[in-house]
Design goal:
The protein is 40% helix and 27% strand. The protein is an alpha+beta fold. The strands form 7 sheets. A 4-stranded antiparallel β-sheet has the order 2-3-1-4. The radius of gyration is 29 Å and the shape is elongated. The model is unreliable at 369-385 and 461-485 (pLDDT under 50).
Length: 485
């Protein structure tokens, strides 16, 4: 049976991302987002359309009725979007459909770090090697990198030289566009042989760009290098990544629907171990978030409950009944009950997830002695003391990530171990330290709950609900919720 963190709680959804570089949110909303929403609203079986607009990006979520085949839904959306793609403003990229996945499909966060390589080298390795290898693993739908420096060939023009040569910026742009291409000229037959004729013009180095001819004055060519300089540098950033306060490239790995999280995670870890040996010296891959932990721990707890329950059954029945047959019958009831549950879930096409495992654990408690298990669990948790192990940061948005957030927002994934302080003391100290940071709105929560918040609301909000009594004396705030895009 498929194993996952939670059952699939989302209706079939198709996500449309449109890049509109440099456009203000108001312009993107009116010229890009609204036309796309209008086009898909009338599609068959569409139950809801949501959108999010930011600087230079439009994200539209199209939700279909339950039971709708996702491939048919994507075909319907693709046809609707193709009708309005030509009407979008110049400079806006063609709308694309993101791979079939969901926010709950984020099974791994990886951090690529190095103390010997530049941010550009880190990002290049992450995109050309690491991302491609991960995408080739069956079951992976998307890998979104953020952080580092995106390699870019930059032409820095000198206005004084442009005026001196009488060359405009438009001429330079047109020359670079026309020069950076290979041209096929057909074939030539000579001496019984056929030769392909190809004009090689694609630029590969800064020197190639500098040698591009912009114009000619009195038969003398004016090249790009005559009116400016060419360099390799990082593109302007709309997001950043780090781990333990050090620059890093953070990669989010999403799985395809129906893929087994545990099996896929083990396969990815084997691929990462193999890639680590091929990377340049000093470059390391670290795991920041591992969704499989939220599955393995409940499964382990179920086995522990089975073991402890069996021991208690044998001990109690033998102690009070002194009957081996009664102990055997009682002990057999536990695995048979769980087997019935698993077969029922399989018959209905359900998955083994934390909700199902929690139900099994509760059932075992009811079968054996719920009070004993509760006391042991509380005692064990009271003795646990968390401590920060690692901190990974994602600021802004990844270029391929549908869950866009502004450059003023950041997410920090913190790994903890239980050591010297209680969880309450640790969280109180953490909140107290955060309160000293001026001008910041900080929310602390579980990684899984944060993703559920986004899945349910899809909007950034901080809501405080205050309930007053009839005596007009207000009570303390009861709930505070944060949801991020």
């Amino acid at each position: 049976m498929p194993v996952d963190v939670f059952p699939d709680l989302t209706a079939p959804t198709v996500t449309i991302i449109t890049e509109a570089h440099g456009m203000a949110p108001v312009e993107v909303e009116s010229q890009v987002t609204f036309p796309i929403e209008t086009a898909v609203n009338g599609a068959s079986s569409v139950r809801r359309v949501r959108s999010s607009t930011a600087v230079g990006i439009s994200v539209v979520w199209v939700e279909f009725d339950w039971g709708m085949d996702i491939c048919a839904a994507r075909q319907i959306v693709s046809e609707k979007v193709s009708l309005i793609a030509a009407d979008l403003p110049p400079g806006v990229e063609r709308p694309i459909l993101t791979p079939i996945s969901s926010i709950m499909g984020e099974i791994l966060f990886l951090a690529l770090t190095s103390d010997r390589h530049s941010p550009i080298e880190l990002r290049t390795i992450a995109e050309t090697t690491l991302r491609r290898q991960l995408l080739s693993v069956p079951g992976v739908s998307q890998v979104t990198p953020i952080g580092g420096g995106e390699k870019q060939y930059q032409v820095i023009l000198a206005p004084s030289k442009l005026r001196a040569y009488g060359v405009s910026l438009k001429q330079v742009t047109q020359a670079l566009t026309a020069s950076n291409t290979n041209v096929s000229a057909g074939f030539m037959i000579a001496g019984g042989s056929e030769y392909l004729v190809t004009g090689l013009g694609r630029m590969r180095t800064p020197e190639d760009i500098g040698a591009a001819v912009v114009a000619a004055v009195d038969g003398v060519p004016i090249r790009v290098s005559d009116v400016g300089t060419v360099r390799i540098d990082a593109a302007p950033k709309r997001g950043e990544g780090s781990i333990n306060a050090q620059p890093a490239v953070i990669l989010g790995v999403q799985k395809q629907p129906g893929a087994n999280t545990l099996t896929l995670t083990r396969t990815l870890e084997a691929v990462l171990a193999e890639l680590q040996g091929k990377f340049p010296e000093g470059m390391r891959i670290q795991q920041v978030f591992r969704q499989a932990d939220f599955i393995e721990i409940p499964i382990e707890n179920v086995f522990h409950a089975l073991r402890d329950g069996g021991i208690l059954v044998i001990a109690i029945v033998l102690l009070f009944l002194a009957n081996l047959r009664a102990a055997f019958i009682t002990l057999t009831a536990i695995p048979l009950s769980l087997l019935t549950v698993v077969l029922t879930l399989q018959a209905f096409g359900a998955t083994i997830n934390t909700m199902a495992l929690d139900g099994m654990a509760i059932a075992i408690g009811g079968l054996v002695d719920d009070a004993v298990i509760d006391v042991e669990n509380v005692f064990r948790r009271l003795l646990a003391h968390p401590e920060v192990v690692s901190v990974a940061r994602r600021t802004g948005r990844a270029e391929l990530d549908e869950h866009a957030q502004g450059v003023e927002a950041a997410e920090l994934d913190v790994s903890l171990v239980m050591r010297d302080r209680s969880k309450t003391e640790f969280l109180n100290a953490l909140r107290r330290d955060f309160s000293l940071i001026p001008g910041m709105n900080i929310t602390i929560g579980q990684p899984i709950s944060h993703r559920i918040d986004h899945m349910l609301s899809g909007t950034r909000a901080n809501i405080a609900v205050k309930i007053s009594t009839r005596t007009s004396t207000p009570c303390a705030p009861l709930a505070k919720k944060s949801a991020r895009p």
